[in-house]
Specification:
9-stranded antiparallel β-sheet; 5 helices; Nuclear Transport Factor 2, Chain: A; alpha+beta
């Protein structure tokens, strides 16, 4: 079982038990461990995430620029929002503590290639708002990753949402906020430990206009 599968499984247990991330369950998810105590602690010890919108605001206060993506990750033993920001001459990652909102550091992306960077327009709704739109569309769950992409002539946010029953990939128009497409993966009830087998179904909301090139 790979680390990403463990993360999805333990994360879903935490959401199911408490509606938010239980601290011990998330610790287990990030470290690649799954324990019954993590599930019990999730029900008893509710430690609320600050959310991607707040994390985005705090990251931009620490480093000016335009947000290219946000994901939840473990850094130096802490659960953080890793916020990727494009600046005029470089890209940086800002680590925001997922529970306290404290900035844990600004890291320069040494692998950044200026020639490969798209110029991000200034009229986008923002990664944080896109994550909220995606969660509302799915009707439950927690956004764990948002990526800005220039796809088919328009800017979109690709949002991954985890729920107790599975995961969703939601594509949001980065200018209008309209949901373009959502793809769902449901965990197999007979394989709760691994979550390797999925029942897949698609729901597309087509948005054929390209006014936001």
């Amino acid at each position: 079982m790979n680390k990403r599968t463990l993360w999805a499984g333990a994360l879903s247990v935490a959401i199911a038990a408490s509606g938010v991330y239980g601290y011990s369950a998330v610790q287990a998810a990030g470290s690649g461990q799954t324990t019954p105590s993590g599930t019990q602690a999730a029900a008893k010890q509710q430690k609320q995430l600050i959310g991607m919108e707040k994390a985005e605001q705090l990251a931009l206060a620490a480093a000016n620029g335009k947000v290219e993506g946000i994901d939840i990750d473990r850094k130096k033993g802490k659960l953080v929002y890793d916020v990727e920001i494009q600046q005029s001459n470089r890209d940086v990652d800002v680590w925001i503590d997922a529970y306290t909102g404290k900035s844990l550091g600004v890291i320069v992306d040494r692998d950044d290639d200026d020639d490969d960077r798209d110029s991000i327009p200034g009229n986008l709704i923002g990664a944080g708002k896109a994550s909220a739109i995606a969660v509302k569309h799915v009707k439950s769950g927690t956004a764990v990753e948002v990526d800005l992409d220039h796809d088919d002539g328009r800017w979109v946010y690709d949002v991954e949402v985890k729920t107790a029953k599975g995961s969703s990939e939601v594509e949001v128009n980065a200018v209008s906020g309209k949901v373009i497409k959502a793809e769902y993966e449901k965990y197999d009830d007979h394989d709760d430990d691994d979550h390797d087998d999925h029942d897949d179904w698609d729901h597309d909301d087509h948005d054929d206009d390209h006014d936001d090139d």
